[in-house]
Specification:
By secondary structure, the protein is α/β, with parallel strands linked by helices. Helix content is 22%, strand content 27%. The protein has 6 helices and 17 strands. Helix 4 runs parallel beside helix 5. The structure holds NADP nicotinamide-adenine-dinucleotide phosphate.
């Protein structure tokens, strides 16, 4: 079994920032990246709202730069997924990956949340080319276009209202005849002349040509009638699922499945910290996740510093910078 001072589960902006800080603090740091290095942001075509890039950047470029910066200070990357954790006996914590087993003095959990997909043909094919799960990230690319929003909750209406700043029209497709969103948001949305609503309707397929979205197939769930509607973009807001299942009952969760943390990013388990969308259902931005990662790392660094005399030597630990 390998030993390390810090193990970071997940490699989005929260995890990569945490790795930069803990590695730079001379703590041996292992990042278990998960299936997709960088997480959600690595699927974002253009990033124009991460400070420091006046000409914008791409998700993959941002992720690669963050990875290199953390690696420069000695962070180790394991391109695998965590399959099991044991936080029940306190520090050091046991963390199993696809092929390795670690004992880590502290853990920073940054495995995020995923926007729910509709699960229809064309959806995955056109992600970043007309299909989006983030209005803040992609709305700007739909100036003067006809936009479709899927969902009937607060996110759909709030993001739909934001999209009216860019789009010519914003049509909300909702599967029932009543919205779930708050009355205040509904009032604002109904008052907005760019917004229209299609009820009792689900998206059956997203169709495109020349690599971009052109239309959607809709089904009226009451009549069964299928229609094809031209659209330039499909924004899906049907909820998010935090990736907290891995922890079972070991970490305290909120009723919506997000990890509970204190103001110092600590979970209910001393020595286990959380950062980014695994706890944050509100902001969901790369920069807020990065800020969280920094905070979790600084707390972990202090926490380990206070216990320095009790920490076992890392004779089997991964040497920094190897
Ligand atoms: P949500 O409240 O769970 O709403 C999801 C919406 O998507 C619902 O209207 C649901 O339909 C629909 N939906 C779910 N699965 C679907 C599917 N497979 N196909 C089609 N439609 C589907 O999620 P959310 O809007 O992301 O909000 C999450 C939480 O954040 C909520 O507590 C919300 O209040 C909060 N939030 C608050 C604000 C704010 O206060 N301004 C803004 C954003 C989010 P049904 O209605 O039929 O179930």
């Amino acid at each position: 079994m390998k030993r390390t001072r810090v193990i970071i589960i997940g490699s989005g902006p929260a995890g990569l920032t945490a790795a930069l800080y803990t590695a730079r603090a001379q703590l041996s740091t292992v990042v278990v990246t998960g299936k997709l290095l960088g997480g959600q942001i690595s699927t974002t075509h253009e990033v124009e709202n991460f400070p420091g890039f006046p000409d914008g950047t791409t998700g993959p470029e941002l992720v690669e730069n963050m990875r290199m910066q953390a690696e420069k200070f000695g962070a180790q990357f394991l391109y695998e997924s965590v399959t099991e954790v044991d936080f029940t006996k306190g520090t050091p914590f046991r963390v199993k990956t696809d092929t390795e087993e670690y004992l880590a003095d502290s853990v920073i959990v940054t495995i995020g949340a995923n926007p729910r997909e509709i699960g229809v043909p064309g959806e995955r094919e056109f992600v970043g080319r007309g299909v989006s799960y983030c209005a803040t990230c992609d709305g700007f690319f739909f100036r003067g276009k006809d936009i479709t929003v899927v969902g009937g909750g607060d996110s759909a209406l709030q993001e739909g209202l934001f999209l009216t700043k860019f789009g010519k029209t914003v049509n909300v497709i909702h599967r029932r005849d009543q919205l779930r969103a708050s009355i205040a948001l509904q009032t604002r949305a109904f008052d907005n002349p760019k917004m229209t609503f299609t009820y009792d309707t689900v998206v059956k397929e997203i169709k495109g040509a020349d690599g971009v979205v052109k239309s959607i197939l809709l089904e009226n769930v009451k009549t069964g009638q299928i229609t094809e509607k031209p659209t330039d973009g499909v924004f899906v807001f049907i909820g998010y699922d935090p990736n907290s299942r891995l922890f079972g009952t070991q970490l305290a969760l909120r009723p919506d499945g997000y990890v509970r943390i204190n103001e110092l990013m600590g979970t209910n388990v001393e020595g286990v910290f959380a950062a980014g969308e695994i706890h944050d259902s509100q902001f969901r931005q790369a920069i807020t996740a990065a800020g969280d990662g920094c905070k979790a790392a600084l707390t972990a660094i202090n926490w380990l510093g206070e216990r320095e005399s009790q920490l076992q030597p890392l004779e089997e630990a991964v040497p920094a910078g190897d």
